[in-house]
Amino acid sequence: MRNIVLVGFMGTGKTSVGHALAAELNLNFVDMDAMIEAREERPISDIFATDGEPYFRSVERQVAQELAARDGLVIGTGGGVVLDPKNISDFSASGLVVCLQASPQTILDRVAHDSTRPLLAGDDKLQSILAILAKRQHLYAALPHQVDTNGRSIDQVVDAVRHLYRAS
Ligand code: S3P
User: Fold this and answer.
1) What is the pLDDT along the chain (168 residues), one digit of tens a residue?
2) What residues contact 113, with CB distance under 8 A and at least 6 apart?
3) What domains lie within the chain, and their CATH numbers?
């Protein structure tokens, strides 16, 4: 069975939706960030702080290649996976890539109390969200399958992704 790969900015619901979707479809869910943390035996914030973002991206690239070579998975990616076009071409070749979207305010509401994301560690989270989105939104928007998560429950988003999967 083809993979379903959930892509999108931090706080768009990739992990929560991925878990629920995998349970419904009887597939295994794999969270890329959790896989990276297990492999590195340290949290993502430590990887960024000690070895920097380029090192994190190299591990992320390696994990993306490995997962794209498997099948029957629901894969929750990290928000920056779109930065390397090879990740998207590999995932597109092995499954359906679906981009979850949310407005900056929705993202802020969802990540407000989270301290695990190094790119949103500053005092002004909304400012960080807007600055990163300005650099990346064209990469997310270029993906052919989009699901709006604003004001939708996890179950509603799961249904929308399932619909795209069936139709594809
Ligand atoms: C990142 C998103 C994070 C994680 C890392 C970098 C990004 O994943 O991979 O902190 O560059 O957007 P989530 O999207 O699961 O928060």
Assistant:
1) 899 999 999 999 999 999 999 999 999 999 999 999 999 999 999 999 999 999 999 999 999 999 999 999 999 999 999 999 999 999 999 999 999 999 999 999 999 989 899 999 988 999 999 999 999 999 999 999 999 999 999 999 999 999 999 999
2) none
3) 3-158 (3.40.50.300)
pTM above 0.90, yes or no: yes
116 CA → ligand 1 middle, Å = 9
Nearest CA to ligand 1 atom 11: 80
DSSP-assigned letters across all residues of 6-53? EEESTTSSHHHHHHHHHHHHT-EEEEHHHHHHHHHTS-HHHHHHHHHH
> Distance, CA 3 to ligand 1 centroid (Å)?
20
Does 33 contact ligand 1 (Cβ within 6 A)? Answer: yes
